[in-house]
Design goal:
This protein is of the alpha+beta class and 291 residues long. The chain has nine helices and eight strands.
């Protein structure tokens, strides 16, 4: 595999997404498609619940040979035959973004999610390749480490057993993973601040209630809490998808209360999401559904 610096190539023309994917793969970067909501494609029926023997939570994907982009980060590949296969070609056509497995490419992404996190990085970490994101920046270093979310407020470390969105080659020379990052991933993340109270209103709702009993709603909220708490990667996307599912099922009849929303926000904040991100995800979900 070529050195990580070799994958930072400029695309001066307007290549197709597949051209970009193949170029990245040729440079040694394992890539995978993301859905429109920026989450990975779910496992197919044969791979559901790792029935195939795949191990997406381990350091290797396991023995699964599924031809589809299953198992999130563990599906990332540099094989052009896989990337252009019928199943993957269909996924690329539906994809909303391209992602890559940083650890598989021999790099570490310090994901800085807000200005305070960026200010911390500028005062603490050595300069390196920097890529602008929607809310902050990715600082990319040469070398792989274990991935840990929420090592500081607004800071995630993405490398082994994780994925990051491809947002371009970035700017600046790539430095080695600094000792400060190695120290961050060694220690257990500090206790999270107490969840902030819900700052959104429950949907008023005017549609006919489909719930057979209060137990139906309770079961749905409990399942949503579990879905968030068991997310192993792509927590932002998992939270948004869960909010979307809850609102789709329960958002139009007026049964959701602030207590229900608070439980979802608490579960999300326990996974490292800030209250602001929860509010944004909730707002985006209500907008998407026209609630």
């Amino acid at each position: 595999m070529t050195q990580p610096t070799d994958i930072r190539r400029e695309h001066t023309a307007q290549p197709s997404p597949l051209d970009v994917v193949l170029s990245l793969a040729a440079g040694g970067m394992p890539v995978l498609p993301l859905r429109a909501d920026k989450g990975p494609f779910g496992n197919c029926t044969g791979c559901a619940k790792n029935a195939c023997g795949g191990r997406p939570n381990m350091k290797t994907p396991g023995p699964c040979t599924c031809p589809r982009p299953c198992h999130a980060w563990a599906a990332a590949t540099t094989d052009p035959h896989v990337l252009t296969s019928p199943a993957w070609s269909t996924a690329w056509q539906r994809a909303g973004a391209v992602a890559y497995h940083p650890g598989g490419a021999g790099v570490t992404v310090v994901d800085l999610d807000n200005q305070a996190a960026i200010d911390w990085a500028r005062s603490t970490l050595p300069p390196t390749t920097t890529v602008a994101t929607t809310r902050g920046e990715h600082w990319i270093y040469r070398g792989a480490v274990r991935s840990v979310n929420a090592v500081r407020e607004g800071v995630d470390i993405k490398s082994l057993m994780s994925y990051a969105r491809w947002l371009g080659p970035g700017a600046g020379p790539m430095a080695e993973v600094p000792s400060a990052v190695h120290e961050l991933v060694k220690v257990k993340p500090a206790a999270r601040p107490a969840p902030r109270p819900v700052a959104v209103s429950a949907p008023a709702g005017s549609g006919r209630c489909p719930h057979r009993s209060p137990v139906y709603l309770e079961r749905g909220i409990a399942m949503a809490e579990q879905r968030i708490s068991t997310a192993t990667s792509g927590v932002h996307a998992a939270v948004y998808r869960t909010f979307l599912a809850v609102l789709s099922a329960h958002g139009r009849c007026g049964c959701l209360t602030e207590s229900h929303i608070g439980r979802l926000f608490t579960a999300a904040q326990a996974k490292g999401e800030s209250a602001r991100h929860c509010e944004t995800a909730w707002s985006n979900a209500t907008t998407a559904l026209g609630i």
